[in-house]
Amino acid sequence: MNLPDRKTVIIGLLSYTAWGLFPIYWRFIDDLQPGELLAHRFVWSLFFYLAVFGWFKWRAWNHRVNSDQSGRAISKPVHHRPTGRDWMLSAVSALVLGSNWLLFIYAVNNGHTLDASLAYFLNPILNVGVGWLFFREPIPWPMVVAITLAALGIGTQMIGQGEFPWIALTLATTFCAYGVTKKVQRVESNFGLVMESSVVFVPALIAAFILRGQSPVEQLTLRHWLLLAGTGIVTGVPLVLFSYAAQRVPYSLLGVMQFVAPTLQFLVGWLMFGEQLNGSRLIAFMLVWAGVGFYLADRLVRLARSLQIDERIQIAQADLSAANPRTKLPENSLPATTNEAETIESCS
């Protein structure tokens, strides 16, 4: 497995930490309807994305100007011009993400934060199945155990609660689908966010005006406007971080990092919001957590082995370079590189 650099991993972890604490923000504005909040969220997010994208463009231009003045050779970045396929994927991403946002806002503001956290405990496990189905990533045997335990957990909640856990399963499925669309997009990550918000900007703006007249809150106060405008920031920051990491981190590793978000959401819903954790729901969480434990243990073992293999390769390259400075060790000269070791371990 080719490991990403530390900066990329930290960026991914920061995005999940922000999502884990996100329910607290929506409680400050829970007197407005979820549909109105969603419409404002799309509108203000576009302004944030345009600002971020413009800043990145300015940095790239400034770097080229400084490099030209210093006489250093520079390589201009290659930008992929959006095609009809890219715009279609952006529209699909926006619709899927909007569905996820709407349901999440509803869940948090109606006492279902624990259901939302259960969804994002299930989502990393679902990501592995999607990684195998669409990206040909191998599924180790502990993941099979994890999927089985997660299914048992959902079944336990269905029997104990007497209802289908549609909030948890819908949230998990829609966010997993959004991750797939981000994985297959070929445009620059930040510009992809601008495209997603652009295709729904006008419908969201119209919806915001229509839903304003149907809202139980007749007049928006300064607090309302500040919090509504702030949805662009609290939405955009973790998505920009996630978009950056999703295109550089293996999809299965994203599944490991994502457990940060549901853990924080669970603690917020249980300890801060006082949501009930009855017997059947606790058993369901324990089964899912057991599945998560199998998965994390397997990932950590594989990560340690990959690091050992990479270290041996570096030592061998250093020894060969010291013996003959003009000779470079071919990447396939060892019997098992990092990726090969990952494949061999998954088959054993």
Annotation keywords:
single chain, 348 residues, mainly alpha, 13 helices, 78% helix, globular
Helix-strand blueprint:
Blueprint: H1 6-27, H2 34-70, H3 84-109, H4 113-135, H5 141-161, H6 166-184, H7 189-199, H8 201-214, H9 222-246, H10 251-257, H11 260-272, H12 279-323, H13 338-347
Helix pairs in contact: 1-9, 1-11, 2-3, 2-7, 2-8, 2-9, 3-6, 3-7, 4-5, 4-6, 4-10, 4-11, 4-12, 5-12, 12-13
Overview of this structure, please?
It is a single chain. By secondary structure, the chain is an all-alpha fold. Helices cover 78% and strands 0% of the residues. The chain is built from 13 helices and no strands. It has helices spanning 6-27, 34-70, 84-109, 113-135, 141-161, 166-184, 189-199, 201-214, 222-246, 251-257, 260-272, 279-323, 338-347. Helix 2 (34-70) crosses helix 9, helix 3 (84-109) crosses helix 7 and helix 12 packs across helix 13. The longest helix has 45 residues, at 279-323. The protein is globular. It starts with 5 loop residues before the first helix and ends with a helix. Mean pLDDT is 79; it is low at 73-78 and 331-348.
